[in-house]
Structure formats: C-alpha cells, structure tokens
Amino acid sequence: MNAPAPAAAPAAVFPDPVAEAKISAKNVSVFYGTKRAIDDVSIDIPRSYVTAFIGPSGCGKSTFLRSLNRMNDTIPGARVEGEILLDGEDIYRSKMDVVQLRARVGMVFQKPNPFPKSIYDNIAYGPRIHGVTGSKSELDGIVETSLQRAGLWDEVKDRLSDSGTALSGGQQQRLCIARAIAVDPEVILMDEPCSALDPIATARIEELIDELRGRYAIVIVTHSMQQAARVSQRTAFFHIGKIVEYGTTSDIFTNPREERTKDYITGRYG
Amino acid sequence: MSPAVLLLLAFGLGLVGWLAARSRAWAFRRAAPGGRIHSLPNFHAWYVALWIAVPALLFAFAWNAISPGLITQSVLADPAASVLPAFGFERDSMLSEARAVATGSAAAVFNTEAQGLVEPFRAAILRYEAIGLIVTVLIAFAGGAFSFLRLTPDFTARTRVERAVMNLLLFASLVAILTTLGIVASLVFETARFFSMVSPIDFLFGTHWAPDPMSSGAVDGKQFGAIPLFWGTIYIGAIIAMIVAIPLGLMSAIYLTQYASNGVRQVMKPLLEILAGVPTVVYGYFAALTVAPAVRDAAQAIGIASASTESAVAAGLVMGVMIIPFVSSMADDSIAAVPQAMRDGSLAMGATKAETIRKVLVPAALPGIVAGVMLAISRAIGETMIVVMAAGASANLTANPFQSMTTVTFQIVAMLTGEGSFDHPATLSAFALGMVLFLVTLTLNFIALRVVKRYREAYE
Amino acid sequence: MSDSFEQIQAARRARMQAGLARRYAADRRFRLLGLSAIVFSALVLAFLLVSMTSNGIAGFQRAELRLTVPLKGTVLIDPSRLAQADPLGGLESAGLPMAVDGAADQAFGAGGAGLLGNSAWRDLGQAIIDKPAMLDQPEATVSLPASDDLASAMRGGGEPALQATAKRLMNEGKLVRAFDWGFLVRSDATSPQAVGIWGALKGSMMTMLVTLLLAFPVGVLSALYLEEYAPRNRWTDLIEISINNLAAVPSIIFGLLGLAVFLGLFPNWRSAPLIGGMTLALMTMPVIVISGRNAIKAVPPSIRDAALAMGASPIQVVFHHVLPLALPGILTGTIIGMARALGETAPLLMIGMRAFVASAPSSFVAPSSVLPVQIFLWSDEIDRGFIERTSAAIVVLLVFLLLMNGLAIYLRNRFEKRW
C-alpha cells in the first residue's frame, strides 16, 4: 500500500499527492510567550492513513500535535500563527467552536489519564456531555462498540462499574483510546501513547492503531523510530521546530533525502 | 534578685568561659604540628560556655520556682507569724500583703497584723536570694572548671557541642507534645472534678442548660444538660456557616483557579487572604452591630415576630463569611492537586470548561474538598468571638434560625469570666465543654488530615 | 450497513449541534456564579473596611469646648512644685479646676462647668506641666473635652434642652469636633470622651514580644529537627501529629490550658502580658513549625549534598546553608502567625485579660489589656461614643495587621526562589 516517493517539493511545503488531506497546516508557527516552538510549518495530513511525527526531544512535535485540536489554548501564553485547515475550515478562525473541534479531533495522551470514575462512565463521559445519545440503550451500545474497537471489551465487560484507574497501564491507555473513539471523532491525535507502557502493552496498542486506520485519520507522535516504521504510512521528521522531511514512511526510513533525517534515523543523534 | 539579674550573671560567666576556652584552644592550635587540632577553637569555646551557663540557669530556674515556698515556710516558722489567723483567705491575704511590702511593690500594709511579718519576710527573702546567688555561681564555676580542664588538642569539642545542639532541637520539637499533653491534662483533670459533681449522663444528654454560678449547696445535675449547647454549636457552625461558606468558597476557588486571568488572580488572592486575616473580634463586632439588627429587621419584615437581635443566623452568616477564604484555599489546593492530564483529557474530548470542572475536576478533588470542609467545620465550631458577641446566651433548643442560641464556646467564656468561684460546678463545666470541643475538633482534624494525605499520595 | 452507520452518525452530529448553545450557556452561567462568589467576598471586605473606617474616623475625634481660662493671678503655684511628684495634685490645690469651671460658666452660661468632661482640667494641667511658662500668661485659650452627655447631644441624642445648648454652642463656634491625638496616648477610661488605646496597644506589643521570643526559636528549631534530623519512627510521627493537630485546635482551648497551667503556676500574674504571651506562643508555634518545614523542604538537596561533600557536619550543613536559605520563608510564616496572635481574643479572655486597666502596663507581669480585648470590652458599651471609639480601635488593629500581612507578602515575593 505504500505509495511511491513523492517528488521533492519546493520550500517547506509537503503536499500529499496520494491521499486527500484531512488536515492541512499552512505556515504554522507556535509561540510560548516570546519563545518560538514551531517555526513556519506546512503539512498535509491524509484522511485515512496513520501519520507519525518523529524527531528528537524538544523538537516541537508534541507542540504541533496539540495545536491540531487547540489544546495549546489551555497553556497560558501559548499563541498560534498561520492556519490549520480541517476539511478546509481554519480551526483558529474566531468563529471556530473549540468544543466541537475537539469532538471531531480527539486526543490520547502520553500518560494514560482515565478519569477517577467507573470504566463505563469514562467511556460514556464524551457522549453524555455532547448529548449525542437519545437513550440509555444507545449509550450502552456506544460504550460497548467503543470498548470493542479499542480491543478492551472482553477484558472489562464484566466489571464496567470498576474504577478506570484500577486497570493496568496498557488497559488504561486502551480505555483512553476507547474514550476518544466514543465521541466518534474524525481524527485521533496520539501523543507518545506508548511511552509509559511495557513492550507487551505497546504491541497491543500498535495493533489497535493498525485496526483503527481507515476509519479515522490518526496522527501519532513517537519517540521510537521502530514504532513509527511499524504503525505509520506517512512520517514527518521534526527538528528544532521545523519539519525537515515528510513523506511515505518507507521512503523516510529507507531513502531519506535529507542528511539530518538520515543522521537521526541511523541514531547519530536524538 | 530578679530573674533578669540571674540571666545576665549566667550569660556573663558563660562569656568569660567562652573567651578563656577560645584562647586556650588557640594556644593548642599554635602549638600543634601543622596548626590543626580536632575542633575549631570556637567549638571549644562553646563547649565551656554551655557547661557554665546551662546547669547554672537550670538551677536558677528551679530555685526561682521553689524559693517562694521556702520563704513562706521560714516566715511562718518565725514567732511573729503566731498572730496570723489559722486558715483561710485572710491568712493568705495577710501573707501576700506582707510580701508585697517587703519586696517594695506596695507602700504599706492594710492589715496591721501583717506589719509584724514584713521584717521576717524581708530577711527570709534576702537569705534565700543570697543562697540562690551563691549556689548559682558555684555551679557555674564547677561546670566551667570541669569542662575547661577537659580541653586538649584532641578534644572532640565539635561533636559534643553538636550533640548539645541536637538535644536542643529535639527538646524544641518535644514542646509540641508537651503542649498537647498540657491541654489534655488540664482538661481531663478539671473535667473529672466536674463529673464527680454532675453525672456525665446528665451533662451529655440533658436538654436543659441553666447553671447558676452563684448557687451554693447541693448541685442540681439537671441544670447541666448540654444538648442545647451542642445543637447551637452545630446549627451555627456546621449548618448555617457552611451553607454560606461551602458554595461561596468552592466557587471562588474554581473561579480563581480555572477562569480568572492572571491579573484578576493576583488581585483577588491577597484579598481573600486579607479577609482571612481579619481578627474574629472584628467579625464579631460586625455581626453584632451591623448584621444582627439587619437580619432581625428583615425577619420581622417578612412576618417572623419571634426574631431576636441575637440570632443564630446572624452569627452563622458572619462565621460563614469568615470561613470562605479557608474553604477556598483548601479547595484551591485540592483542585490544583488533580493532575493536569485529567483536565486535558476532558477538554480534549470537547468538554466545556464548566463540564470539565463539574464532572471531572471536582469529583476527582472531592476527597480533598471534603477534608477541607471538615477542617472548616472544626474551625467554625471552635470559633468564639463571633458567637460571644452575636449569638446570645440563652440555651434554646430550636430550629428557628432567627432565635437566640448559645454555643459551647460561648458558655466556656461565660462560665470562666463570670463571678463564680473556681470550685463551683458551673465554672468547672467550662472544662468539660472544652473537653468535648477538643475531642470533636481533634477527631475532625485527624480524619481530615488522613484523608488529605491519602488523597495527595493517590496523585503522586 | 455503511449507510445506516452514516445516518446514525449524522443524527448524533445533529444532536450535538443542538445541544451546543445550551452547553455554552451553562458554561457562562457557571463562570458567572464563580465570579459572583468572589465578588461577594470582595464586597463584604469592602463593606467591612468602609464601615469600620467611616465610624473609626469619628472615633479619632472628640467633642471639645473652646474657652479662655485665666491663669496668672488665678492659679497660684510655685513653678518648682511642678517638677516634684504629683504635679497635677499641686495644680489641683492651686485652684486650677476652679479656674476652669469658672471660665466655663462664664463662657457657656450658667451650668457651663457641667458641660465639660469630668476631669477636663487635667488636660490643661498636663499642658501647663509640659510648658510651665503658660502660668505667666494672663490667660490661655484651650480646647477641653466636653462631657459625654454634651457629646451625644451634639450627635442629636439625649435631652432636647442639652441638644439646644449644643446647637447654640456649635453655632457660636465654641463646641467643635476635633481630631483627638490623645486617643493614641491615653488608656482605658469609663467615659468615651476620655478613653485611649495606648494601654491596650502597649499591652499587645508586650504580649507579642513574649510570643515572638518563645514561639520563634522553638518553632524554628523543631522545624529544623523534624525536617532535617528526625528519624522516621513512632516518636516523630507523634510529634508531627501533635503539631498538625495543635495548628487546628480552637484557640479557646489554648486559653483553657493557659488558665489551668500557667495561671495555676503563677496565680499572681493574672492578665499579665507574660502569661498572655506564653499562651499565644503555644498557639503560634505550630504555625511557625509548619511554614518553617515547608520553607526548609524547598531548599534543594543538592545544596546539602554539596556542603556534606566538603566535609561539613550535619549541624554545620543546616546552620550554614539550609537555615539561611529557608529563613525568608520561615519569617513569612512567622509574621502570619504573629498577625493571627495579635488579633486573637478568646484565649486571653480565659486568662483574665478582661479587667478594666486604666493605665499602660509597666512591666511584663503587670495587669494589662490588649487591643482585641479592648475592642471586645468597648463593644459591650451602649454609648454611641464607644461605638465610634471601638471602630477607631479596630482601624488601629487592622492597620497593624495589614502592615504585618503586607510585610509577609513583600518578603514572600522578594525572596521567593524557584530552584
């Protein structure tokens, strides 16, 4: 399925000729106070692929990810310039409804963060606040489907009223993914979702990501190049607030055009 | 000889020892090969100074405590003391008069019989002061000589001084335990005396409170039913005050931590601190002068004729306002302890701020908030001045908030500042009430602190 | 299948859309609720301060009568007598009271002497003692305190006849309300025209000094012990539990302790600043320990490691490095604890500090009053003059507390280090 390498694009714009763009960032810069964390980044994120952001720590990949559903708004002093289009609409325009945006662009965090509520209530939280269900049975259905899609149903179906925090780390993270799925988002952002997990739990999450591909546009930030290679079809390499290279994953890993990309993936630094 | 003189004397001798030991240690150091001795000269100096001053001061302190008794003993042994009445108040007052004249704090005696005792007093005081002074100096010299002779180049002065410092630190931290013991002992002792006159059953379960501090003769236990007091305390402190303080405090904390801009926060937080720093007597004055009449007028305007000026609701409202900053800062801490990830998780799903706060942050912070409310209740029921100034003295067992009610703290003040003698059950009842108050607040605090600790650990 | 899924999804989107306006309204309402909570607190504080200050301003004034008293040839006294003991007594026997009363009768009409405060002549006497040259002048024009009745008539209370007199004198410019410096230097009295707060203020300062001298060293040393040296064992736990609980024990309980233990040991020192200070020290100590421990905890371990690696002993590490770095934090906590002690009333009532004390305490073991207790005692008086005086005393107390809290906030901002 990996498409052939796209032709080298001029400047720092990386259009994706193969898949239709779900999110398209144009000349985005992110500032924390006066510090520029992301510097003039442009990228198209395809609709039904998994896109991985890789790069050394502090390169801005998580910052950029958080700007895709405006989670940066919660950080005092954070400011975004440029435009980020979701299905052609700028999410930073003043009339944009952040609540709706986040319902469409879900997020899974580095550390599993289930709410201190029951498993059921964790999943039902999103549908409830958004008022998307008309009945209790519909809500039950959403909980079940979400847990099934997250591959957690069989493990927890008998103890839905147990606290979400009582699960193991890997289960918690899948719970968080199920929680994100329950709102039926179009995009799921994952910020190093496996960094707090052991290898077995990581493998399970990676399988899950693969299963979810196609239904959602998935963007994953990861530290591990192996993980990027395993789960993604597109990879962007970030360095000091800029995208150095963006292309199909196989190209980035087997045939990087940029010297810095090559140095990073061969372990020269990072 | 005043304590100040003794203090100066001990410090003076200590300073002398300090200087002497220091110069001796310097001499060691100059003579030592390589100019190194085990401890710096200053430690030698401190070692000697401590040996001079500490035992001398301990003795002087003890002597100050026991010598008045010895002086009185020796005066009573004097033939002139035979004029004194054998027992009782007159005898004591004559003795203290004579003592006052002898020490110069009074110009002349009022009872002429006491005149004969002035001279014996003067002599005894002089004698015992001289003994005290001489022994103090002797002890200081003995300590100085003992320690000074031990100084050698290899002497481990530093370790010894440090051990003394460590003991001092340990002693300082034991003061807390001693205080607690002191509270418990004084309460238990007087409470036991009270319960030997009034049955605990009558006290704890009786519904009629009307002790008469001036009464004499048989004690009527039926006058000491404290239920109306407990009810008034709970009604004012745990119900009315909390109805005001919990919503306002919690919402203030939520607004300050979640909504307010940095500028607003920087103005409002110190403002709440000022509100918390206003003395309770000022709140009490405010309650009595402004709030209570307003509440009474309002109640009468809506047709509650029984509304009295000293109403439970006036005291409770002001107490609630006083507690707001406390609840707010406890809630603030608890909400701040909820991990940021929890908030992000909710916001990332498209929850509004209010939804995140109401459905995620507050439930997650609930143990901490509940503990904070318990501490707030413990503070409210122990609050004295507001109820003393605004709640009134009549022990009504009623649910009408516009009537006057009395509280445990009010009655403690009333019983102990009244005219009754110290042995009277009415006076002693204050200690029994104090005991109840202490136990209840202790339990509330203990549970609350445990909950807070558990809760902090859960998120760490 | 795919179609129906799309339909369900569309239906859910529609429902989400429909709920949005309501959810945002709820968010705004919630925010408004929070804002009103905080505004309520601010308004209460503002109301409290404004009402105290507006009443208090009147409390710093008193009603004074202006009159001209003949001195030379009327008050006959040897100037050297003024340098001896009890000079006021000398002036009294030299006829100063009579001169003042006569002047009052003359100035304000029959019964004029009765319009003056009870011992109004003493104010003039004190002025003469301070400046004996006045006696050589034929007469002196002075402002002397009016009687309580006249003062309240001036506010529109009391008998109608007296009110009329007050009105007349005010129109003639003989009766005025003037700033009363004496309020800050006199002590308690039975007449609101003659009271002052110096006695209570001095008592408060002496009490605070005792509290500080006892609570600060003990508090700091035990904070150091608990944070730096204490082994983790049952004893340490017990100490910690004691301190945490003491910090939350109602203040009146400390009063009971002071009454049973301190007054039991020293029965002659009832209502003395020493006993009051000791009682408040027990109350303040836990506050200092707790804030001290937090300040000590904030000193990074790397500094301890560095000093230990240089061969400093544990005691040296603490006293040379940790304590100086933690001191600003400790001081902040101490000031806050002292401010609380300064405003404390209930425990002092327990140890007898509620007596009428008409002069400033001369020693740490002399009977004394303190500012908050003075406020409490005055608040019981019904005379309108006392209400104003009470508010004035509260203003003085609040000024001290604001200064202390301001100092604490300044210290915190100035020295707060982020490691």
Structural summary, described in words:
The complex is a heterotrimer of chains A (270), B (460) and C (419). Chain A has 270 residues and is of the alpha/beta class. Chain A contains ten helices and ten strands. Chain A has a six-stranded mixed β-sheet with strand order 6-7-8-3-9-10, with helices on both faces. Residues 1-13 of chain A have low confidence and may be disordered. Chain B is mainly alpha-helical and 460 residues long. Chain B folds into two domains: 3-155, no CATH class; 221-458, MetI-like (MetI-like fold, Orthogonal Bundle). Chain B is built from 15 helices and no strands. Chain C has 16 helices and three strands. With 419 residues, chain C is mainly alpha-helical. In chain C, helix 1 packs across helix 16 and helix 8 (198-229) runs antiparallel to helix 13 (314-342). Chain C has helices spanning 2-59, 87-93, 96-108, 120-130, 148-154, 160-171, 182-185, 198-229, 234-246, 251-265, 273-297, 301-309, 314-342, 346-350, 371-379, 384-415, and strands spanning 61-70, 139-145, 175-179. Chain C has a three-stranded antiparallel β-sheet with strand order 2-1-3. The two termini of chain C are 60 Å apart. Chain C is extended and about 110 Å long. Classes of the chains: A alpha/beta (270), B mainly alpha (460), C mainly alpha (419). The interface between B and C is large, with 88 and 84 residues.
Q: So what's the CATH class of the domain at 46-67 and 101-265 in chain A?
A: Alpha Beta
What is the CATH-assigned architecture of the largest domain in chain B? Answer: Orthogonal Bundle
**What does the average pLDDT of chain B come to?**
86
Query: Main sheet of chain A: which strands, in order across?
Result: 6-7-8-3-9-10
